Amino acid sequence: MEDKLIRGKVIADEIIAELREEVSSLKEKSGKVPGLAVVLIGEDPASQVYVNSKEKMANSLGYHSVKIVLPLDSSQEAVLAVVEELNNDPAIHGILVQSPPPPQIDEEQIILNINPQKDVDGFHPSNVGLVFTGAKDGFPPCTPWGCLELLKRSKVETKGKHAVIVGRSNIVGKPMASLMIQKGVDSTVTICHSRTADLGAEIRRADIVIAAVGIPEFITGDMVSEGTVVIDVGINRVDDETRPRGYRLCGDVDFESVAPKASLITPVPGGVGPMTIAMLMSNTLLAFKRIENIG
Ligand SMILES: NC(=O)C1=CN([C@@H]2O[C@H](COP(=O)(O)OP(=O)(O)OC[C@H]3O[C@@H](n4cnc5c(N)ncnc54)[C@H](OP(=O)(O)O)[C@@H]3O)[C@@H](O)[C@H]2O)C=CC1
Ligand SMILES: Nc1nc(=O)c2c([nH]1)NC[C@@H]1CN(c3ccc(C(=O)N[C@@H](CCC(=O)O)C(=O)O)cc3)C=[N+]21
């Protein structure tokens, strides 16, 4: 089983080490460092975990890192004002507003107001379009990009392979499809969602499955063919009284029944999650180099 694991945490650490070298050499050259601002509205415990690990990683790379926590009942105008301030702050190169925001906030409008040059999440329509058209100067969204990087660094052949993506969100499913059909990646893609007629039949035809459903252990062994490469994007908290925190983390894939059939599989935790953070750091460095015109 051990040799089937795609160790996202280990690969993410390699990427971070590569970034660390580049950051320090650019700092020496320019006297400047990348700046990342993360905006969190409310104090959802799971979101806090991610935001804190982003901040910790940014600090460990020597980035200028800012965390802004706004009250849960913040108005649209208050959030927009913070975004505007960060757009105009020359020490900030990357802006991330943690998703999902509380219901009174119009997320689409917030994203539209982030300077696309600082949109390190890759959520602004201008970046979505640049990535979709295969232009070089967008920001690939961190989670799908992290999944692709896992496949590349695990030497998984994508060319001519059938990738089945389960989920069509703007954060994961859709941009994942957009990356998998790029020239050079060259997969044939099927996108599934809650209205897909026979999900098992679609997944059984896959060489590569990418699961982003948001339902704990939803994809089971009977839905997967022998030899499939399985990338589990899901991060779910499931109550578990036997754990010190009272919950355990699991993916959207039922690891126990799927792993015996998979040729390669990502674990949760330690799979896609750490890659998302590594790609965010990479995009922030990219934004820094573009804005400061160095590197
Ligand atoms: N590792 C990481 O860094 C990240 C992990 N995540 C995790 O990934 C998962 C997905 O996140 P996200 O894309 O934001 O979630 P969303 O809830 O936005 O999207 C879920 C998708 O799954 C589809 N779906 C729901 N039920 C079914 C079903 N029964 N059969 C087939 N498809 C179904 C939905 O279909 P429909 O559109 O029809 O409703 C939707 O397209 C979550 O577990 C989340 O925590 C998310 C972001 C980053
Ligand atoms: N604007 C925005 N951008 C995002 O990229 C974004 C977001 N909003 N909202 C929430 C999702 C989720 N997400 C994760 C990042 C890292 C881990 C991660 O590092 N997970 C660890 C475990 C962490 C733990 O112990 O809870 C792992 O899987 O090994 C998980 C999830 C980013 N997201």
Automatic annotation (TrEMBL):
Q: In the record, which residues are listed under signal peptide?
A: none
Pathway where it operates: One-carbon metabolism; tetrahydrofolate interconversion
Annotated ranges, domain Tetrahydrofolate dehydrogenase/cyclohydrolase catalytic: 6-121
Catalyzed reactions per annotation: (6R)-5,10-methylene-5,6,7,8-tetrahydrofolate + NADP(+) = (6R)-5,10-methenyltetrahydrofolate + NADPH; (6R)-5,10-methenyltetrahydrofolate + H2O = (6R)-10-formyltetrahydrofolate + H(+)
Q: Carries keyword Transport?
A: no
Gene3D superfamilies xref list: Leucine Dehydrogenase, chain A, domain 1, NAD(P)-binding Rossmann-like Domain
Q: Name one GO cellular component term.
A: cytosol
Keyword terms, alphabetized = Amino-acid biosynthesis, Histidine biosynthesis, Hydrolase, Methionine biosynthesis, Multifunctional enzyme, NADP, One-carbon metabolism, Oxidoreductase, Purine biosynthesis
What domain of life is recorded for the organism? Bacteria
What GO molecular function annotations does the UniProt record carry, in alphabetical order?
methenyltetrahydrofolate cyclohydrolase activity; methylenetetrahydrofolate dehydrogenase (NADP+) activity
Stated EC number for the protein is 1.5.1.5, 3.5.4.9
Return the similarity comment.
Answer: Belongs to the tetrahydrofolate dehydrogenase/cyclohydrolase family.
Question: Assembly and partners?
Answer: Homodimer.
Name this polypeptide is given = Bifunctional protein FolD
Naturally occurring in which organism (per UniProt) = Lentisphaera araneosa HTCC2155
